[in-house]
Design goal:
The complex is a heterodimer. By secondary structure, chain A is mainly α. In chain B, strand 9 and strand 10 form a beta hairpin. By secondary structure, chain B is of the alpha/beta class. In chain B, the strands form 2 sheets. In chain B, strands 6-7-8-3-9-10 form a 6-stranded mixed beta sheet, with helices on both faces. Chain B has a 4-stranded antiparallel beta sheet with strand order 2-1-4-5, sandwiched between helices. In chain B, about 45% of the residues lie in helices and about 20% in strands. Chain B is built from 13 helices and 10 strands. The chains are: A mainly alpha, B alpha/beta. The interface between A and B is medium-sized, with 21 and 37 residues. Bound molecules: adenosine-5'-triphosphate and magnesium ion. Adenosine-5'-triphosphate binds next to strand 2 and helix 3 of chain B. The site of adenosine-5'-triphosphate has 12 residues of chain B, from strand 2 and helix 3.
């Protein structure tokens, strides 16, 4: 019976695992004697990076003509926008912004807007904020127009869609720093580079949402258009696009937030005196007072832009009783006009009504710095020990393994052979227990793999072992195509000589995920059970998710200074939100009928959670894990600013040296890892969903 | 061919699936033996949603296509309006070859000669009721004042006055379908397609709408092709009924003919309910004549 054809895949899997284990054992044995197993020889690497640089050197003079023209046009647009914003008298701009906020989100948003603007004015960040806004203001419309066009083409031509999807994946997963360099080379210095980078980053969500929206237009609506005699253009612009508009507006919101986030990051190349630059500059000089103030400006801008664009996206069309006649039908336009007519002329005569006077700026940064100093001085002892503990007992074992990490200096004990045997024994027992008690094969494999991982650390594991195991895991999760992708990704990293930094990054990310995901799951579970917790954390999550990545650095940098531990915490903080979100959503969207059935069977609250809700929420929680990993990876490069080694740092170094090849290759490595993880976890989630019949 | 024939289709095929199946249909469909062709299409991993359909519809007639879910009614209807391109076959409207029309001619024809009502209404969510009804006129390029006036006429026709500025989602199902009907009539078409127009409505409203439909037709005299899976609806409304099964037409005839002389067991079973209904009501039999 066991030889029936249905058993064949199972046999094959077992056989593959056996091969994998054999290879691993051989490698661990031989690692001492054969150098090349432990460390991938430099001579074997195949420098794609150099080739890219050569290609760039050849390409740049070739393209420089048209690209500089393009750059000039964009630069002109940017200058006009910036000059207009800078010239607009602050009281006029103030009132106009508040009016827009009121239209988008009513009184509360208008008040929030007014308070934020007062803060920005008083702290003296008005001009720099306007510069940032100008960048966003130019990038967003261009991205939307381009994104919609590409989306329409992708909807119309299937082959184009198949072609664009992977490109969009890479565009979104590639760290911005990686493509800043080629853009710099191609377009020359200046704020235009930031503009283009932010467009590259913000076009994908618009394309995706356009395609999605168009695909979701009910066929009957399109048919109704056709039978009315629409030609192609009419069908698209009068029927399909308007019907897809709600989805496209969500895309516009995402595009706007992506553009803002990237504008802030692109400040790193300098050239524009904006808020991102202010944060970066003060952070570099360790002036935490000013950087905190500027960070808050960014945070406020992000929240406001998010709320306003969502507000406009959500305005449902309701038939308005026409209460007012004539011009009073447009109260917002009227108010805006009134503001311009009444304040603008005045501002020509009263200078303080045109440019916000310097004397009115209230510099609180000194106070904040002083307060911070006191706070940090009083807590530094505790913080220091937290940091040491995190580093020695968690991050280091993850990276170099208990084998190396346990020493009298760090742990206060020697890793004696007896301890080693005890460790191996406990892992073995754990695996057995998992297999024996709950019959969970994947649980046993997980414990065993973790045991080996912690013993050798990511950098201590010979590369053939790593590649074998990951490929096998990918195969088990999603079949041969995904295994192939995972394998190709690792070979790409290996051949480019980036294995070691990649392992550093793997340690950092892995450690961060190992904390962020269970923690997020726990919080999400509580939020799913307790309504007030859910209500309390939702706005916090919303706010955190709209925050540009940069902002995360500020508080942790203040508390823990530059270093790897800070990077770890930053990544954890950033990756926590999706874990919370997806867990809560997964648990809360379990069908009511199932829960009632659980109650009817007499489940206690705990049984209901673990036996009824959790199993059904697993696919959604896996998507949460997926997002957690992707968030962690995308934070890598930013975290490199506060000191890590690894791929992120490689990208950052490349930026400093204007080495496009290295930057792109290292960036691409991160992107590929992100895409591979995404495919694996999505595949797992899908198969779980299917198994549950959802 | 009689001058009274408005629309006729001959040996109409629509095959879904791989290119191979489509080619099989093209090469073999002329043979006349539909069962063999369908078998060959199945072997090529294809599906013949319409398999060699032929019928004539007279001017001013209510012709009903009926059959179970998946029997190919909607596909047949969409082939007739060329919302779906037929794989094979001939469609004549007013004696002209409809399948040969160029895209431009097709658009022109649809603007002036065709109207269609959909099962799930197919209303545009971003337009008000009035704008939805005026949509076919807007497509024709008629100016705002005139099209609004004509749309208002249509609204009166379907008794919807007063809801001009509502959006479709604010209306009940019955009201939404009235909008659909008004829109399909706005361009004053000759041929009126209705794809299960009342199936999404609850029984009472459905009955009311059926009555109104008959009333409308008594003044409009359109040529109607109406799809339904409800035999009692078909019997109530039809001049003639075509019963479809698995892509083929198994019987065409007046309601009474079909009820009294079912062509085979399938039709017999299918019409069972209606026949029982008639027996209970008894007197209704006279209505059919
Ligand atoms: N675009 C398509 N691609 C592939 N198969 C299709 C497509 N459209 C319809 N079919 C198939 O053609 C067959 C007939 O479908 P059709 O929609 O015409 O049935 P119907 O009689 O209208 O049924 P219903 O009462 O459910 O509307 C079905 O088996 C359906 O699966
Ligand atoms: Mg149908």
């Amino acid at each position: 019976m066991s030889d029936s054809p249905t058993d064949w895949p199972r046999h094959r899997t077992v056989a593959f695992w056996a091969v994998c284990i054999v290879i691993s054992v051989i490698c661990f044995q031989q690692a001492e004697t054969r150098e090349w197993i432990g460390r991938f020889p430099k001579e074997w690497t195949f420098g794609v990076a150099d080739h890219i640089n050569v290609a760039m050197n050849w390409l740049v003079p070739l393209l420089s003509g048209p690209l500089h023209a393009l750059s000039a046009i964009l630069g002109f647009l940017l200058d006009v926008t910036r000059d207009t914003l800078a010239w607009t008298p602050w009281p006029v701009a103030f009132c106009l912004f508040v009016i827009v906020a009121h239209k988008a989100g009513g009184l509360s948003l208008a008040l929030f807007m007014a308070m934020s603007l007062v803060y920005i004015l008083v702290t003296g960040y008005w001009d720099r904020s306007m510069n940032t806004l100008a960048l966003v203001g130019v990038a967003v419309p261009l991205s939307i127009v381009l994104g919609v066009q590409i989306g329409i083409l992708g909807y119309r031509y299937k082959w184009l869609n198949a072609l664009t999807q992977p490109v969009l994946d890479v565009m979104q997963a590639l760290p911005a720093f990686a493509y800043l360099i080629p853009i710099l080379l191609l377009f020359g210095f200046g704020p235009v580079v930031g503009l283009i980078a932010s467009m590259i980053f913000s076009i994908p969500p618009m394309v995706r949402n356009t395609i999605l929206g168009l695909q979701r237009v009910p066929p009957e609506i399109s048919e109704a258009g056709l039978i009315s005699g629409c030609n192609r253009g009419q069908l698209l612009w009068w029927v399909q696009i308007p019907a897809a508009l709600p989805q496209m507006k969500i895309g516009m919101n995402q595009t706007t937030m992506a553009a803002l986030s990237m504008v802030i990051i692109a400040a790193i190349i300098g050239g524009s005196d904006d808020v991102g630059w202010a944060v970066l500059n003060t952070m570099r000089k360790a002036q935490f007072g000013p950087s905190l103030i500027a960070g808050l400006v960014i945070a406020l801008m992000a929240m406001l832009i998010d709320r306003i664009s969502l507000g406009f996206a959500n305005t449902e069309k309701e038939p308005k009783p026409e209460r007012h006649a004539g011009i009073f039908r447009y109260p917002y336009a009227l108010a805006a006009l009134a503001v311009i007519v009444s304040i603008l002329p005045m501002s020509f005569f009263v200078a303080s009504l045109h440019y916000y006077p310097r004397e009115w700026v209230w510099d609180i940064s000194a106070h904040i710095t002083a307060a911070l100093d006191v706070f940090i001085a009083s807590t530094s002892g505790a913080l220091e020990s937290v940091k040491r503990a995190g580093l020695f007992f968690f991050l280091l074992p993850f990276r170099i393994g208990l084998d190396q990490a346990v020493s009298p200096y760090s742990w206060g004990i020697e890793f004696t052979p007896a301890l080693r045997i005890a460790y191996a024994g406990s892992i073995a027992v754990g695996s057995m227990l998992a297999l024996g008690l709950s019959g969970s094969r994947s649980g046993a494999i997980f414990i065993a793999v973790c045991g080996v991982l912690f013993y050798y650390g990511t950098t201590g594991i010979p590369w053939p072992v790593f590649i074998c195991t990951i490929t096998m895991l990918a195969y088990a999760a999603g079949g041969s195509a995904i295994a192939g992708l995972a394998f190709a990704t690792m070979i790409f990293i290996l051949l480019n000589g980036l294995w070691e930094p990649a392992m550093f990054s793997a340690a950092l990310c892995g450690a961060a995920i190992l904390i962020a995901f269970p923690l997020g799951m726990a919080i999400g579970t509580i939020a799913a059970q307790v309504d007030w917790v859910s209500k309390a954390i939702r706005p916090v999550n919303d706010t955190l998710q709209t925050m540009p990545q940069f902002v995360y650095l500020i508080p942790f940098l203040m508390l823990f200074q530059v270093g790897e531990f800070t990077a770890l915490i930053v990544v954890i903080a950033y990756a926590l939100v999706p874990a919370i979100r997806y867990t809560e959503h997964g648990l809360r969207s379990v069908p009511v009928a199932c829960i009632e059935a659980g109650h009817a069977a007499g489940c206690t609250k705990r049984q209901l959670l673990w036996w009824v809700k959790m199993p059904q929420a697993v696919p959604e929680i896996m998507l949460g894990l997926n997002q957690t990993v992707i968030y962690a990876l995308s934070m890598l490069v930013i975290a490199a600013l506060v000191g890590t080694r690894g791929l992120g740092q490689q990208v950052y170094v490349a930026l400093g040296k204007a080495d496009s090849g290295l930057g792109l290759v290292a960036g691409l490595s991160i992107a590929l890892v992100a895409i591979t993880t995404d495919r694996i976890l999505q595949g797992l989630s899908r198969s779980r969903k299917k198994a549950l019949g959802l | 061919m009689s001058v009274n024939v408005k629309l006729s289709c001959r040996n109409l095929w629509k095959t879904y699936g791989p290119q191979e199946a489509v080619e099989v249909t093209r090469s073999a469909a002329g043979s006349g033996n539909a069962a063999v062709v369908m078998q060959r299409i199945r072997e090529a991993q294809g599906l013949a949603a319409c398999a060699g359909i032929s019928f004539d519809v007279m001017r001013g007639e209510i012709f009903i296509l009926m059959g179970l879910s998946g029997s190919g009614k909607s596909t047949a209807l969409r082939c007739l309006s060329r919302l779906v391109e037929p794989t094979m076959g001939e469609i004549l409207i007013d004696g002209e070859d409809f399948t040969a029309k160029s895209p431009r001619e097709l658009i022109d024809f649809r603007r002036h000669k065709m109207g269609m009502v959909f099962q799930n209404f197919g209303l545009m969510p971003h337009l008000t009721v009035l704008e939805n009804i005026a949509f076919p006129l807007r497509v024709q390029g008629i100016d705002l004042a005139e099209r609004n006036e004509r749309a208002r006429d249509m609204m009166r026709l379907v008794e919807l006055d007063g809801r001009e500025n509502a959006y479709p989602r604010q209306l009940s199902g019955g009201q939404q379908q009235r909008v659909g009907i008004a829109r399909s009539l706005a361009g004053d078409p000759d041929i009126w397609f209705l794809d299960e127009p009342f199936s999404a409505l609850d029984p009472l409203i459905r009955r009311q709408m059926q009555n109104e439909f008959l009333h409308l037709q008594s003044t409009l005299h359109k040529t109607i092709i109406f799809v339904t899976h409800d035999i009692s609806e078909a019997v109530r409304l039809a001049d003639r009924i075509a019963i479809m099964k698995g892509g083929e037409i198994v019987q065409i005839g007046a309601p009474r003919e079909i009820l009294e002389n079912p062509a085979n067991d399938y039709v017999e079973e299918f019409t069972q309910d209606a026949r029982e209904g008639l027996m209970i009501r008894g007197a209704s039999k006279a209505d059919l004549e």
